[in-house]
Write a structure and sequence with these properties.
Blueprint: E1 3-6, E2 12-18, H1 24-36, E3 46-55, E4 59-70, E5 73-80, E6 83-90, E7 93-98, H2 105-114, E8 123-133, E9 136-145, E10 153-158, E11 163-171, E12 175-187, E13 190-200, E14 203-215, E15 230-233, E16 242-245, H3 253-257, E17 262-270, E18 276-283, H4 287-297, E19 301-303, E20 305-307, E21 310-312, E22 314-322
Length: 325
């Protein structure tokens, strides 16, 4: 049978304790996240330049430029090999212009990596593990988000500097993901890492280096969307689409007989009536699994994304995992 999943360090001398024995751990977690929340608690415009290396079929170099005025007003351009994308957020309006029909998976992962504390959920400390790593005191906190769909994480923090060192979690069906952050520096009341990495099952898939982060005047002409840009409404309290009818793709007979497994990742648009369109393979398994996925997802139906009482068009990614049982 196939399972379906929708698509956002060694310590020594360790001691495991319930979080309730030390209320200051919750305060440490909150303070560390706020200190690094460059994109959510920043009052002055800035410009961020990042070089990165992403593992595609082969390692590919890229560059990101972010020009930021406010949490809901910014301009972002990313280039990776032959791919180029410009995004604009201006209040509730989000524009995307790119030279492919979809955004590569690694680009979305890069954005998530750079927003190391995204401020989107409250994390509750459950257990702590204290120890020494590379001669530095480290506090690792088992945390659970308050949202229903959130995943448990282990966040490791330097309790002296309050720097987030790593974020570790399981991504269904069988991925172990770790983000690491090093070489922190001061900027406008925050501390932000120069070096960031994403590892999947122990393999490095993204390495990002902050080349510059500096105050900058925001040019309002950047908010004019490029010709052909896709517009989406993106309100602050937007409710995500809810699956109504999502049958599993059939496990191809040839793949099952040969005991083949794989993951097909798909980008698609959910219209305001809950139907699906613009389905694109962005991460391939074997051809028969990809074909089965495309045919089945055409019939999927959702309760659409909502801005207040208004249904809105939205874009999502879905991972269909073919596993033998």
């Amino acid at each position: 049978m196939n399972s379906l999943t929708a698509i956002a360090a060694l310590l020594t001398a360790s001691l495991l304790l319930p979080a309730s024995t030390d209320p200051s751990i919750q305060e440490l977690l909150t303070a560390a996240r706020q200190q690094a929340s460059l994109f959510y608690h920043q009052s002055s415009p800035f410009q961020l330049e990042v070089d990165f290396l992403a593992q595609m079929n082969v390692p590919v170099q890229g560059h990101l430029t972010l020009k930021w005025e406010a949490e809901r007003r910014w301009w972002r351009r990313v280039v990776m090999d032959n791919f180029e994308q410009v995004e604009i957020l201006d209040g509730d309006k989000h524009y995307t212009a790119r030279n492919l029909s979809f955004t590569p998976i690694r680009i979305g992962e890069l954005f998530s990596l750079l927003q190391l504390t995204d401020g989107s959920d409250v994390l509750m400390a459950k257990k702590i593990k204290q120890g020494i790593e590379n001669g530095i005191e480290v506090t690792c906190v088992k945390v659970e988000p308050t949202s229903v769909k959130g995943k448990p994480h282990e966040v490791c923090i330097n309790p002296i500097s309050r720097e987030v060192l790593s974020d570790d979690w399981q991504e269904p069906p069988d991925e172990h993901r770790t983000e690491t952050y090093t070489d922190y520096f001061d900027f406008a009341g925050h501390r932000y890492p120069r070096k960031l990495q994403l590892l999947v099952n122990g393999s490095r898939v993204i390495t990002a280096n902050v080349e510059s982060l500096a105050p900058a005047t925001f040019d309002r002409t950047l908010l004019v969307p490029p010709a052909g840009a896709v517009e989406r409404r993106q309100c602050p309290d937007m409710k995500h689409p809810v699956p109504i009818r999502t049958p599993d793709p059939a496990y191809p007979k040839s793949a099952s007989q040969n005991r083949l497994t794989g993951d097909t990742t798909v980008a698609m648009t959910i219209l305001a009536d809950g139907s699906v369109t613009d389905i694109h393979i962005v991460g391939s398994a074997v051809r028969s699994m990809d074909d089965s996925t495309l045919q089945t997802l055409k019939s999927w139906r959702f309760k659409p994304a909502m801005c207040g009482a208004e249904p809105v068009v939205s874009d999502i990614k879905v991972v269909v995992s073919f596993r033998l049982r």
